[in-house]
Amino acid sequence: MIDGLSDIIAGVMIITGSIFAFLAAVGLWRLPDIYTRMHAASKAGTLGSGLLLLALAAHVGDTSTFTRALAGVVFFLLTAPISAHLLAKASYAVGYRLTDISVIDELKD
Amino acid sequence: MNLYVVNLLLAIAWMTLTDSFGLGNMIFGFVLSAVALSLIREQVGSVGYFSKLGRILSLLMLFLYELVMSAVRVAILVVKPNMNLKPGIFAYKLQVDRDHEITLLANLITLTPGTLSVDVSEDRSTLYIHALDCSDIDQIRKDIAEGFERKILEAFR
Q1: Among B85, B68, B41, which Cα is nearest to A51's?
Q2: Largest CB tally within 10 Å, which of A60, B51, B94, B123?
Q3: Chain A environment of B24 (Cβ under 8 Å)
Q4: What are the transmembrane regions (chain B) (predicted)?
Q5: Which domain holds residue B8?
Q6: B30-86 pLDDT, tens per residue?
Q7: CA nearest A46: which of B86, B77, B58, B112?
Q8: Are both B129 and B64 inside the same structural domain?
């Protein structure tokens, strides 16, 4: 009974995580410039990979796997915003322009 | 002595006494010693410690909730036929001024719906934020100031 339940939970998390990872990829493809693309990569991507790691932890169910999966999630949460921020900052510094439909740019001055 | 250190020492004592050094037992020992400390909070002056712990936990919960919401929002956005983007970069005047608080706020902003921190000004007074929908900048500013920034100030001041 418990086994079945953890399998169902793990399965649901794997499917949800994959959907988010897929939609992050769709976002990278559809959004117009690097700044808007970082939104998709840093958010949907983080949640997707986080859910996949947690699904692994729920499925295997022993403490050492669980701790490492949890550490993986924590590192994702710590590093994804930093890399998104650095990529955006570096792109701005070397002069990548915002997409033409942008409405405001207060960093210019 | 710092109550966090006391809490940790008690947890280590618990692990030694029960002769089990797994993570589960450590967490249990930590919770157990936190309960013990909360029983004598009037005597050792740990009232502030516990309300601070509560505020940090509530910041963590807010963070996880916002992350899920923002991923859902981005996911919904990218499957819409007409994305109707109004992207742009706007300036945000910071109330927090310590380095670790600015770092935390910038990270939280990046993980919330539609916003991404791009840069901090040299004098650390302004954060430049890229948003997917810049049609109502004042509302975004208000959300950050009353959500994350207030929580950070509560947790660390």
Answers
A1: B68
A2: B94
A3: 63
A4: 20-40, 56-79
A5: 3-45
A6: 888 888 877 777 676 666 777 777 777 887 887 788 888 888 888 888 888 777 778
A7: B112
A8: yes
